[in-house]
Design the sequence.
């Protein structure tokens, strides 16, 4: 998984439940693309069909979440929504998604985006520590995590992991067994989450500027279904 100028541009992948997509997701996609520069041709947002790590209660139907992601991506030519996870049965494992990507685009380098807490728990994911065979990681700090925390987490997951100079400016980088690199990008984390959007929506409060207008229109057009699903989560608490 080398990064050279002669290599064809890779692709960044942002997985998530997008229940619903919000401005934190969109800014993350924009900033990662800018930071990776010529290393990637674009970013794919990949809505999760059956989240292995999250309760299904309160999850909007896949179709609705994917339509919202598509609507948010519509005016950004480098941003796509990939519905690949809806094509499989059972839990939507990242391992399987990346295998599907590599089969569809052999020779492309993939950059899987995730927050630092998720990176630290990769050993709990299905074949999580093997993922560097399939992709690089772009790790974004959360909860005040620093580059030192990131390197320590990488060494806990992979004792053979070793820091190396990054091709990206001011970015910590670790080489992982299997061939992938993990890049630590110090991007700001906007204080917005899908859970908070759901809580505000159910309380009848205003979610303008937290959810892109294109997704908000779809939420409003489907307000009964949205309420019905999101209420299930609050009733389960
Ligand atoms: P929930 O509140 O339902 O747990 P969420 O807001 O964390 O959801 P997800 O769809 O689970 O949204 O997240 C998809 C991806 O976006 C993950 O990699 C997550 O770390 C990242 N992400 C979520 N919120 C933000 C944010 N505010 N800023 C940057 N990245 C974010």
Sequence:
């Amino acid at each position: 998984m080398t990064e050279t100028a002669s290599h064809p541009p890779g692709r960044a992948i942002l997985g998530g439940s997008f229940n619903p997509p919000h401005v934190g997701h969109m800014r993350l996609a924009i900033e990662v693309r800018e930071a990776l520069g010529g290393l990637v041709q674009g970013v794919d947002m990949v809505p999760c069909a059956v989240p292995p790590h999250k309760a299904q209660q309160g999850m909007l139907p896949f179709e609705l979440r994917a339509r919202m992601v598509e609507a948010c991506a519509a005016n950004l030519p480098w941003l796509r929504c990939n519905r690949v996870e809806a094509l499989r049965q059972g839990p939507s494992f990242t391992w399987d998604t990346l295998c599907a990507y590599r089969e569809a685009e052999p020779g492309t380098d993939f950059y899987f985006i995730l927050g630092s807490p998720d990176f630290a728990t990769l050993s709990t994911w299905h074949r999580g520590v093997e993922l560097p065979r399939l992709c690089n990681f772009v790790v974004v700090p959360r909860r005040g995590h620093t580059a030192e925390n990131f390197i320590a987490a990488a060494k806990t997951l992979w004792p053979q992991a070793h820091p190396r100079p990054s091709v990206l400016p001011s970015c910590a980088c670790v080489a992982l067994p299997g061939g992938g690199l993990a890049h630590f990008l110090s991007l700001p984390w906007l204080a917005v989450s899908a859970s908070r959007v759901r809580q505000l929506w159910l309380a009848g409060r205003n979610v303008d500027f937290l959810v892109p207008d294109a997704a908000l229109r779809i939420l409003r057009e489907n307000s009964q279904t949205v309420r019905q699903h999101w209420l299930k989560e609050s009733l389960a608490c």
User: Anything to note?
Assistant: The longest strand covers residues 40-47. The mean pLDDT is 93.
